[in-house]
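Troubleshooting: if your tokenizer reports a length mismatch, compare against these two reference records.
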Amino acid sequence: MENDYTNKSNEELLLKIRELEKEDKKLNTQIIKDDRYGLNWIDCPEAFEKETEDKIPILEEAKDKAITNEDGKPTHILIEGDNYHALTCLNYTHKGKIDVIYIDPPYNTGSDGFTYKDKRFLKEYPNGQPVPKEHPLRHSYWLSFMSKRLQLAKELLSDKGVIFISIDDNEIAQLKLLCDKVFGDDNIIAQMIWQQGKKHIGTFIGVNHEYMIVYAKNKSYINDNTRKWRQRKEGLDKIYTIYDKLRKKYKSNNQIIEEEMNQFFNSLPENDVAYSSKHYSHVDDKGLFFAADISQGTGKGPKYDVFHPLTNKPVTIPSGGWRYSFETMQKLLKDDRIFFGDDETKVPCRKRYLKETEYELPSSVFYKDGRGATKEVETTLGKKIF
């Protein structure tokens, strides 16, 4: 029998093992080459693909629509036209130079007016074929449309560039896989949830959110710049206004200032932007601070004596040990960064000052009422244009 190795010599067995290893390596290489994991769709050729390969798109200035400063110099470039042509044109002038791209593509809801210029049906649909929800090529049309434009957008991005894409439930799953394919799944920054007002769309569950998916051209270029992504906490100016008034009124009487600040925080409704900083309610000469946990969550922290400054007795050591080494703790004590209770029975905390924690990473879930944005654009431009 062909697979009977009973009477084979050691040399023959080793030779067979090498042959099998080569076959296995070849098979694995082929599987990787075929890219069997991912998103597949029927590629639908667009009407102008061949045209853009043979011709260079040209921008024609409309001087009567120019957006300029008082000195007459243009402030921005507003390109009106098909996004594929515009992206192609920009790749001649701005390839690899754009740091941020935001796109709001067709959501492909079946009723949003998304049309596709499939070159096979130009005679029947010269202005593009409507794509209703029941169309058999609905997702293929959309993916064909998006894949070409995302590839052009990627070429525009600089090494540290990022792209933000708005979308809803109709294509979020497809868009995520498509972006993984175009940008690489290791370059995703976040899939954000955008809550939009009080509207509720749906039959079984009221849907009042959309998504914003964020990818980097190359995440390794922006990992060292994560601080640039941080934003200042809302409501801080309101808090500091109250605190400064109290400090001016009560001077160095921290106890009264702290009591007044607590009354202020307790009076805030939960939807007030300053409410999220409510825990920064302690006061000392350096300002407002939060009493942060100082124990080691893993339960493997060091255990040593820390003495209460008033009773001079060892304080209660947390069951998991201290978060910091003995040397670090001594430095924190010297810098007055440890907050003690009234006596040694309580575990002390670390002082985290509001002034030192003003910035935080943006949340992956955020609220923005689209109606307010529409009004803001109208106010900025002086009239309703969009």
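Reference record two:
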Amino acid sequence: RGLRLIGPARNTDPSAAGATTPDTPIESVSEDSRGRIWAASADGVLIVATPSGTRRFDSRQGLPSHALYRVLDDGAGSLWISSPRGILQIRSSGVDELLAGRRARFDIVTHGLASGMRTIECHGLSQPAGAVHPDGSVWFPTARGFVRIPPSSAPPPPPPKPVIEELYVSGAPLAFLDTAILRRGARNVEIRYSARRLSSSGLVEFRYRLEGFDPDWVDAARFRLAVYNQVPPGEHRFLLQARDPLGPWSPAISLPIRQQPEIHQTWWFALLVLCAAGAAAAGFYRWRVHNLRLRYAAVLDERNRIAREWHDTLVAGFSAISLQLEATLASLKPDPDRAAEIVDITRKMVHHYRAEARRVIWDLRDSRPEGEALPSAIQDALHRLAEGRNVQCSFHLSGEPAPLAAELEHNLLRICQEAAANALRHARASLLEVRLDYQPDAVTASIRDNGAGFHIDETQANSTGHFGLTVMRERARRFGGSLEIESRPGDGTIVVATIPVNGAKSP
């Protein structure tokens, strides 16, 4: 006791694993069965001297930080080291691997009360502080007598059999027989286990593994609880093995565990999502096709509307002009005065239908915005007609505006435009008033002016040139309505268009 290591060290860096220092207090020096010299120090350091050099081991290799008294080799594959807190056992093969650099730490077992010792306090006061008997047994002095470790010539006992005792989920026990079935969303799964060993049961070591979750065995040492925060859905097996200190591992026992998946983790949910995605794609495709068809139908409707406009105005007008020209040719020789009158009417017809052609073209280039209400469209049309003229226009709306069929609204707008244009162009009116009245079963548009007026009985299209009145009547009759005209010379004109709306509302 009280020896100190003297002489130069092979490695003077105290932080290195192989360093030695001259001031290391040595408790004892002994030789193992392979001729290596071991020195145990009071600061928990082991120093081994071999022909290749000196190595120093401390807590970085798994040694305790308290004093080490004596190192003995039992010649059967183990090194025994006494300390104030029990006797340490180290496999000789582990020492060889550590010296060769194939591992980083000792595989150490500490023996104490659980191994049959009366006290864990060994001491180095007795000299020697331990010895190996010729029969192979190892002796160490303690505070309460000697400890004898018999020779290990007998075959080691079979490893203990592990037992899975309890299973808890979120702190509540779970009953299980052949398989543990975990409910959806189970968390904090605790598996408690032990081993059947009557002697030294506290020294039994365990390791476990959850197949499909743990990539390798989990070394639990002497801890008897496995905790999983969450088990993946599916079928798993919990494997458990036990062994005595430094002994072989027992055959693994298994507990099948079935974790029920969450709804979003089931195959039928994935199939449902797939079907929903397919339905959404099909719905989008159908919507796209429907949208294209609607656009195509809108184009066809516009083409049909243009065709009706041309048929109702220009085609009919040119037919009337053709008849007037034929009548002129027939009357040219027998009645020149009549022929001149027909030519004058034809000239007026040409002027009228030229204006109609311009209006149709204007409709195509400057149609009212999509979604514009009929009252707003009429007001805009009046504003354009009165722009630059000395005329006062007013618009009055009564009743609750209701959406009508687009074609019906279009023809009502044209009737109002035609009547207002006639009042400004032919009657030279200075006051123009338009009223739009929505009724439950009809809509009425009235156009009043203070212009020159005319005789109703004399307004025949072939004699006066007021062809717009005929077009307005045809527009109203197309939807089952009527057009009424009140006028006297010098007293202005009132045009009233009434159209039923039953079945004419827009979808």
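Descriptive notes for reference record two:
- DSSP finds six helices and 26 strands in the chain.
- Residues 6-20, 460-465, 503-507 have pLDDT under 50 and may be disordered.
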